[in-house]
Here is the input.
Amino acid sequence: MTCEKCGYDNAAEAKFCEKCGSKLSVQKEEPKIEQKQCPKCGAENMIGSKFCEKCGNSFNQVPPPPQQNPIQQRNQRNIVLPTVIICTVLLLVCAAFLVVRYFDEKKQEVARIEEKLEEESKKAKAAEEELKAKEKEAEEALKEAEEKAEKAEKDKEAEKASTSDSAKSEYIISYSSQRLLTSSDLIGLSLKEINYAKNEIYARRGRIFQSKELSTYFNSKSWYRGVIQPGDFSESVLSEIEKKNAEFLSAEEFSRDANGYQLDVN
Here is the structure.
């Protein structure tokens, strides 16, 4: 800052002159006025002016774009058009790639689903075949068991029939100790057989017979065991059924012949 009294150039922030000690006065700088240039004539105008002070041009009008010559325009078209085409082609290629990729993924997904379904179908088919095989095996086992049971039943019946036939061949009336006899049980029996059937009841209880004919007959039977002498035998060893059947057979014998069957005649 220059001292007005002695002309000494002091520092800008000094308040007193370093040479003469005089108080320095602060000089105010005049504000700089900003201006703008007219785009038409080039004249300087104040900021905020709406019209040029020289040519009257309006500052609010948008300046027209600079004119390009036909060659530049053609060159720009030659650049822009291929660029647009290239960008379009690139976009189409990208879109086609994405579409192909999308359908390829869908195709792979469908293939995986079909493969899974086929695998599940094979498993189901295998399980069904296994189930059928087990059912068939069970049916065969059941059939075999039924056949065995049927065969066993037949064998049992055959054995029973054989035993029954054997018993029948051993006895004249095999059930005379089991139930009361009736006239229908004596159909087809001769007087001799009725006599033998009566004594059969005593023979079961071990009676020994004095009659040679009866002894010979009962000794031929496998079931007969003669252990009680005629004098020692008592009808008390007989059951009520056997007693009544013996009386019934005796009555039938003597109803057919007053003398009954004659033993040891022949």
Notes: The first helix runs from residue 70 to 170. The first strand starts at residue 35 and ends at 37. The chain has a mean pLDDT of 86. Residues 213 and 230 are 15 Å apart (CA to CA).
